[in-house]
Design goal:
Blueprint: H1 11-18, H2 28-49, E1 58-62, E2 68-70, H3 71-87, E3 90-95, E4 102-103, E5 114-122, E6 133-141, E7 161-169, E8 173-178, E9 183-189, E10 194-199, E11 210-212, H4 223-233, E12 244-245, H5 251-261, E13 264-267, H6 280-293, E14 297-299, E15 319-322, H7 324-338
Parallel strand pairs: 3-5, 11-12, 11-13
Antiparallel strand pairs: 1-2, 3-4, 5-6, 6-7, 7-8, 8-9, 9-10, 13-15, 14-15
The chain binds 2,5-anhydro-1,6-di-O-phosphono-D-mannitol and magnesium ion (MG).
2,5-anhydro-1,6-di-O-phosphono-D-mannitol binds at residues 67, 96, 119, 122-124, 214, 249-251, 254, 277.
Length: 339
């Protein structure tokens, strides 16, 4: 009898199959990705219970940006750090929820080759209204695995990433990641508790009809961004305008939708926040690499996100990300206005 054909590829199987893409790799990166997948399932279980149990709500502490922390942020942070620590492949983590880097000091981890930057639960103000939230992560090889880990290991430009991804807790839960050989998406099948390959080799359309920006802040935007938004809103049959405005206020969800459908997400500088709101190393760089790997583009309005050299762990940057033609076009509006 022939063995039944396997029609489902799980995340674990896919990671092992793809290990051959890195001929000198010893499997550490694969293990690290698998650890992230496991933590994602644990966080998913708790996210799904939000509203049912007393895990929902504010914890009464603030994160390093002075923002309120919800209990689930804290839970997710702990889970990812614990998962990354237990595998022995990661020696330190930079997280949105911790001011300083978190060194993992178990015997197995202290000489580990990799560091991880993570936003454990982004868009957390959406938790208590049942709107999609996400996790964003990025993995770097340490500058010198024999030296003690320092901030310098984290302050590498995004072009040095060795893996990056996000998990979206939406109508279904997905994990999307790249190791620089395209982008693949896995949907969690809750009946078997596995992430299954559902979106192989994801590509973002070169252009789209969606723009995503918090227009409530428009009066504070640079003139070039305001002009681009007006352009999106004008009537023009040939280019399919007006475009649709779609803004969830949850970066992963806005990014994921635009990745699938084509579109642009903008978090520009504002007069109150001249560097924008989003953080370079654990929000913008991972998504920038994913979008580039999918054929799209990410810039701060003038410079490629992946080439920015971070000066500090929680540095912010403006972000223009999504379909290549749309990001280029938005940049042109900015350049024209700079004169
Ligand atoms: P957070 O890291 O505190 O959750 O903030 C990041 C979130 C993004 O998910 C989202 O795109 C953005 O903040 C929304 O900000 P705003 O409410 O200013 O539009
Ligand atoms: Mg965040």
């Amino acid at each position: 009898m022939n063995a039944p054909k396997r029609s489902v590829t799980t995340l674990g199987q896919f990671i092992i199959e793809r290990q051959a893409d890195f001929p000198y790799a010893k499997g550490e990166l694969s293990r690290l990705l698998r650890d992230i997948g496991i933590a994602a399932k644990i966080v998913n279980r708790e996210v799904n219970k939000a509203g049912l149990v007393d895990i929902l709500g504010e914890m009464g502490t603030s994160n390093v940006q002075g923002e309120e922390q919800k209990k689930l942020d804290v839970f997710a942070n702990e889970q990812f750090i614990a998962a990354l620590g237990s595998g022995g492949e990661c020696c330190a983590v930079a997280s949105e929820e911790n001011e300083e880097l978190v060194a993992i000091s178990t015997d197995v981890s202290k000489n580990a080759k990799y560091v991880v930057c993570i936003d454990p639960l982004d868009g957390s103000s959406n938790i208590d209204v049942n709107v999609s939230i996400g996790t964003i992560f990025s993995i770097y090889r340490r500058l010198d695995p024999n030296a003690p880990v320092t901030e310098a290991d984290f302050l590498q430009p995004g072009v040095n990433q060795v893996a990056a991804g996000y998990i979206i807790f939406g109508s279904s839960t997905m994990l999307v990641y790249t190791t620089g050989k395209g982008v693949n998406g896995f949907t969690l099948d809750p009946s078997i508790g596995e992430f299954c390959l559902s979106h192989p080799d994801m590509k973002v359309p070169n252009s789209g009809k969606i723009y995503s920006v918090n227009e409530g802040n428009a009066m504070q935007f640079p003139q070039g961004v305001r002009d681009y938004i007006s352009y999106c809103q004008q009537d023009d049959k040939a280019t399919g305008r007006p475009y649709s405005s779609r803004y969830i206020g949850s970066l992963v969800a806005d990014f994921h939708r635009n990745l699938l459908k084509g579109g642009i997400y903008i978090y520009p500088p504002t007069s109150k926040a001249p560097s924008g709101k989003l953080r370079l190393i654990y929000e913008c760089n991972p998504l920038a690499w994913i979008v580039e790997q999918a054929g799209g583009m990410a810039s701060d309005g003038g410079q490629r996100i992946l080439e920015k050299k971070p000066g500090s762990l929680h540095e912010r940057t403006p972000l223009f990300i999504g379909s290549k033609d749309m990001v280029r076009h938005a940049e042109q509006f900015l350049t024209q206005n700079r004169g």
